[in-house]
Amino acid sequence: MDSIGGVGRGTDEHINDWITVYVRRAGHLDAPWGFALRVDGVLVPLRMNAQRLVAFLGIEGRSFRSAVAAALWPDVDAERALARLRTAMWRLRRTVPRLLRAEGEGIALAAQLRVDIHDVERAAAGTPYVGDLLPGWYDDWVLYERERLRQTSLRARETQAARHLAAGRWAEALSIALDVVRLEPLRESAHRTVMEVHLAEDNIGEALRQYVLLSRLLDVELGVRPSEPTRTLLSDRIPSGLATKLL
Fold first, then answer.
1. Where do the DSSP E strands lie in the chain?
2. Hey, which end of the chain has fewer CB within 10 Å, N or C?
3. What start and end residues bound the annotated signal peptide (predicted)?
């Protein structure tokens, strides 16, 4: 593998062996600020416009130039946005020559490039939540993807907790469900899983405590009661008088 300007260059067929884009791992050593480009193990500094271009293509995949320009520079007219895109592409190609692929009106990152966000999505159920997508970035496309990935991760974790519960692995189920509650205190489905674990272990008092916590949170934050499925979960396990008072 030869080198130009300190940046490793390989063949297109093996580009995935030496380039990684980090757009998700806030707090990770590779990307403590939420974005990093590593080439052959070396961190490559990029200007902000180049970072945004790489992140957009890494997340969205191949896109029309006009769509990329409109997403990255929505506050200027189409002509100026396209001019900024051309400048960002030119600078990026000088830094990492084979990172971009241009095909007519479309542009994309190298086909075999590794983007950490896809690794996280594939392993979502088996890994803890690793932080928000591109913290500190507030573009509309980032906000949408940030929430989508957050919900994907939380749902995957809840599914994993439910599987542990069904298999009688109560400690594992409880740990995961409590982690989801910590990340999203108003997520009733996660609270319900915590309650189900406690009931499976005949810890009715713990289940009641979790219900009271949820009930107070929903009342203070949203002015609503827990849903019928959550109330029903406890109704058959506690005295009718207490059920009438609490549920």
1. 2-4, 7-9, 19-22, 36-39, 42-43, 63-64, 100-103, 106-109, 114-115
2. N
3. none
